[in-house]
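name: query_chain
kind: protein
chains: 1
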Amino acid sequence: MLQNPVHLAVTAVLWAILPVAAQAATFDELAADATAARRANRIPEAIELYRQAVQLRASWAEGWWFLGTLAYAAHQYPDGETALDEFVRLDDKRPLAWSLLGLCEFETGKYDLALDHLRQGLAGKDLAPEVEAGVRFHYGLLLSKAGFFDRAKRELQRFAPAGADQPMLLAGLGLNALHQPSLPNEVTAARQPAVLKAGAADRFWILGENDKAESGFQELVAQYPTVPGVHYLYGTYLSSTRPAEAMAEFRRELDLNPENADAGALLALSLMNAKDLSGALPYARKAATQRPSDPLAEYVYGEVLMGTGDLPAAIASLEAAERLDPASIEYHIALASAYSRAGRYQDARRERRVSMETAADIQRREQAAHAENR
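structure:
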């Protein structure tokens, strides 16, 4: 079983957290005993006392807070989820509460709720670094499971420098790189070797160790030629330097897995870059039709439509891509170009400004991640 490398760091921070708010009113005996047990590190006793106290006083936010955080730290995730859900009903302004609620929901399998609540936690931007790292890791895994692979990769790749001996991270990177919408703990024993090998090669690629990445991808293709996503992944690696070979890999992927919309989208993009718009258009259209919620497919379809001169349709697709992945610089730049060609110069300027702001934000995050990993 793959172990989570970030839970201990989050838990260590929780033990040191100060009370959310001190109540001015007197506490009843249960509340006082719960506080004393917590301060004496008698955690099971404290959890039970807090549970009894909030049953008597459901409006006691501090009681729900400590019940939730202690339950999370003790791996009692269903209890933590219940308590933290009650807490955010009483106080919805605390990013840490949303983050811990999302982490509990991740563990109890409520992935849609977890994704939304982790997003709310990260929006607060004032989490302790150790907690933020754990939240971002789980958020990235859930984005990948939901099919938002590019958004997920931006979250997961920050952990690559320290991930050589972390199977759960390598599995997360591998699933993301293969565009397989699963979590590491859902990978069967039969699938695990291919997923881990994909993650290891992708990690080398992220770190710029291209010789090791190339070797890893070649081994992956040789050993697992029929695993979904393998030829797609190798094609993405080749696309910027050996486009003809990349197109061959995308075609192989589509032969094996015709429903891989992203392989079709990137084949269309490669054909467009090779000045073959008539060849690109069917692949781009099919990809966007197969996965209308896929930002990459919408982006490529928009680019191809722009190349054909169909600006209204191109703008509609590019706007859809931007809505689905607003942090993608490429989508903002492409939309700015489409707006400019359509004479919508104010909209074009706005998109260029947003792309520059997004680039600056990504650079700040990368610098912060680099500092954490030093």
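note: Confidence is low (pLDDT under 50) at residues 15-25.
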